[in-house]
Design a protein that fits this description.
Layout: H1 5-15, H2 21-30, H3 34-38, E1 45-46, E2 51-57, E3 63-72, H4 75-95, H5 116-129, H6 137-151, H7 154-161, H8 182-197
Antiparallel strand pairs: 1-2, 2-3
């Protein structure tokens, strides 16, 4: 089932405070696959310049740094990541685990690499918690796509989703800096508010 914007907002509210909130927030906000999120490393995050680099991850787990996009780091995502980094460092000291995977953003409390299947179970739990119809990750992405179509200028939508408004896959921009203007900054504020609270300001980019 494909979620409407309002249903995605309910899901976002229900995921607040959950263990994998940061993982899910990244997936939904930036339209990322589980492989792309699982492959994120701390070096991909520039907390000083508020940027996040997302590399294409192939089906067999190979990281393609030449195929990357550079997104602005949303304030709420930044807060979640900093909280997660602190917890990881505390877990490493408390549990004394092997730091082999410490370069990855998403690892388990015992220091092993994150299991993507856990995310699926967590998503199902949050869906039930919110009292929503069962869906998969594509259903969540559909809700976010509808949200972006309502608020985002064409160039912004193309960059954020790698598609034009008709859904055709394109690759015009690699960095948000190429489209950074007043309307785009206003759109970022709305995305951040939606990912943080699940609240949707019902307006279009033409009203900015």
């Amino acid at each position: 089932m494909q979620y409407r914007v309002e249903q995605l907002g309910q899901f976002i509210k229900a995921m607040q405070g959950q263990k994998l909130e940061c993982y899910l927030a990244l997936m939904i906000a930036y339209n990322l696959s589980r492989g792309e999120v699982s492959g994120l490393e701390w070096t991909d995050i520039d907390f000083n310049k508020d940027r996040i680099m997302v590399c294409l991850i192939t089906d067999n787990g190979i990281r393609k740094e030449e195929l990357k996009r550079v997104f602005p780091l949303l304030p709420h995502i930044k807060t979640l990541l900093l909280e997660l980094k602190l917890r990881q460092e505390e877990d490493a000291q408390t549990n004394g685990y092997n730091r082999e995977f410490m370069n990855f953003i998403f690892i388990q409390s015992d220091g092993t690499k994150h299991n993507k299947r856990v995310l699926g179970r967590n998503q199902t739990y949050i869906t039930e918690l919110a009292g929503l119809p069962e869906t998969d990750f594509n259903g969540l992405f559909a809700g976010m796509d509808s949200f972006l179509r309502q608020i985002a200028p064409g160039d912004f939508y193309s960059f954020w989703t790698r598609a034009d408004i008709l859904g055709r896959k394109i690759s015009i921009y690699d960095s948000f800096d190429e489209i950074n203007d007043h309307n785009s900054r206003k759109t970022l504020e709305k995305i951040n508010k939606f990912i943080e609270s699940g609240e949707h300001i019902k307006s279009t980019f033409s009203e900015m």
